[in-house]
Amino acid sequence: MRIIVLKDSKHIEQVVVTAKSAVVGRRSDCDITIRDPTVSGHHAVILRSGDGYVIKVGTPLHA
């Protein structure tokens, strides 16, 4: 999976994730780090599901 990170509609970086899941958040131990105070430490997880992906955002991921 290829993820393109944008800020104010400008390309910031491109991340390639090959694992079945990827954690997104502000902390340095996340697979995809977003340095923004409005993003939780562990904000969301992206899960491979069949031919697509599911993004789960929620309280259990917040740190």
UniProtKB/TrEMBL annotation:
InterPro entries hit by this protein: FHA_dom (IPR000253), SMAD_FHA_dom_sf (IPR008984)
Residue ranges annotated for the FHA domain, each copy included: 22-46
Superkingdom classification of source: Bacteria
Pfam entry (one): FHA
CDD domains, per database record: FHA
Protein name: FHA domain-containing protein
Native source species: OM182 bacterium MED-G24
